[in-house]
Amino acid sequence: FPFRLSGGDLDKLRSCIFPIVKIRLPRDSAAMQQEETVRVLDQDQENLARTFGPGRSLLLGPSGSGKTLILASQAWHLPRADGHVKRILFTCFNLSLTGYIRRLLSKKGVPLGENGVEVLPFYHLCEKILGEAIEHKESAEYYDMVIAEALARLDGDHPLQRHYDAILVDEGQDFSQDMAQVILKLLPPCGTLTVAMDENQ
Known about the structure:
Elements (H helix, E strand, L loop, with lengths): L6 H11 L25 H9 L3 E6 L6 H15 L6 E5 L2 H13 L9 E5 H9 L9 H16 L10 E4 L7 H9 L6 E6 L4
Parallel strand pairs: 1-5, 2-3, 2-4, 4-5
Helix pairs in contact: 2-3, 5-6, 6-7
């Protein structure tokens, strides 16, 4: 071509051709101060978001490396790439992170809730499994008991057993082995599981 494209021009072009790479951050994010800048996943992040499919995947990266953005892009991409993926669970340990994830998915046009992507912090997921509210206490023993009860319920004939077609876990380093077992019982053997974590934490 008789002209050269700048990095910003290439990002705009990529975001038009491949909508999966476009990042729409929630309005209250500090990154939204420069409204005219088009934000896209970098090439490595885009490749990861596109190639995650059926099976188990582990996404490792330090804080701020875009793991949550990649999971949000995967939540958008999975139903489009595989018509069998209808029910997606996006979970994490941190309550405030779930609000950010919901806003991020809404900006990408991903339907939320039972007919789209359910975004639940882990202990709210336990409440759904148990069918009752849990008390939020400081006692580690209490939370261990909640997890054990959720596991016991999922060992029986529970409607959430193998309920989700795909489960995305953010901040996986915060999950114990028993918490991971709860997640696995919600997924059929052929389901998609992606866990993002910072191994340094």
